[in-house]
Amino acid sequence: MASTVSTPRGMPQSGRLGSLDSPRSWASPAPFNGPETDDISNADEGAELLSVSWNQDYGCFAAGTSSGFRIYNCDPFKETFRRDLQGGGFGIVEMLFRCNILALVGGGSHPQYPLNKVMIWDDHQSRCIGEFVFRSEVRAVKLRRDLIVVVLEHKIYVYNFTDLKLLHQIETLANPRGLCCLSYDPNTSVLACPGLRKGEVRVEHFGLKVTKFISAHDSNISCATLTVDGLLLATASTKGTLIRIFNTLDGTRLQEVRRGLDRADIYSIALSQNVQWLAVSSDKGTVHVFNLRVRVAGDNESNQNKVAAVAHSPVMTHQNSSSSLDDLMPQNTGANTSSSLAFMRGVLPKYFSSEWSFAQFHLPETTRYITAFGAQNTVMVIGMDGSFYRCSFDLVNGGPMVQREFIRFLNADSQRPKPSF
């Protein structure tokens, strides 16, 4: 085994982890044991941003800097918590919903911790409640209320959150980006990661004890995301032109949308909570929003009943572009643009019959951006230059999105929303 696990005494029980309604959700800061904490009023505002990551419900995000980490609430936008440290930086800061539990990995030129070490930190108790040391650099950490997932370049470790017991080891193709995604619905437990072949995605349905391998692309996987219940998977390859949506239980490709014709580096893929919209950010400086034509049959059923039903028969409904979409899309909702030459599909090049984006938002091509859906028809974008955008799109007509908010969140005076209409 390529890891060492340390469990300090008094490890919290799973029932005490991550209550969204807990009064311990980012209350007033307590002393940060170990590294010395700088006074917030004297914090170094020139801190370098090393990482940004959404929490599981996209209501908050964490920013790892060269001198600590910060937590931001998205709506309304405000900084809710900060640790400015003298010791060093954090390359990974992973939240557990909105609670006081964090997974921390060092980063930057002066890392707070070694790059092969994961610290599970309880900020309410001001102490480490779990520690993992590996033989190679940690590429990513993912958290659920019941699981801790640590991603290395060639292997993924899955631990039980309650006692830190190792549950699964998963071999992957070289994975320098640390690609791995989890479902966060308590009734389903799904993990998706690169397989052992180029363009392959491995999907683990832990609750059903089912493993599915999906040949998603001809090129290596560059980005992937799951729906909250883990029943849908969206992927992109290193080519970056197509995004594909799959049924994770039988591997069926349900839809394919086109970001563009030129090769691009896909930075993030986001699915709206109602699984109606998909957003993609890339190095081309444009966030594209697509309308999805897939749904889970029996939307009024519980997730648990849906998964049980799927175990016996596919529940994903797929309509091709020549079929009616009325039963899949709400009234007055637009569809993605497609070529007028689509009737010649199979003769013309594939991109003539591709589905193009429904709405777009243009950004400076100077940094990496990750995106997520906010309330109603809004999209949020975080830049590695310390920028936060909120924009909205027309549900009927699509087209260019409207910028509603712009904030430089690393600046001390950016504690309140600054609308930009």
Automatic annotation (TrEMBL):
Is Transmembrane helix one of the keywords? no
Q: Where in the cell is it found?
A: Preautophagosomal structure membrane
- Enumerate the residue ranges of region (Disordered): 1-40
Recorded family membership: Belongs to the WD repeat PROPPIN family.
Annotated keywords: Repeat, WD repeat
Per its UniProt record, what SUPFAM superfamilies does this chain match? WD40 repeat-like
Protein name, entry field:
Autophagy-related protein 18c
Q: SMART domains under this entry? A: WD40 (SM00320)
Organism of origin:
Rhynchospora breviuscula
Tell me the classification of the organism that encodes this protein.
Eukaryota, Viridiplantae, Streptophyta, Embryophyta, Tracheophyta
| Chief localisation class | membrane
GO CC, one annotated term: phagophore assembly site membrane
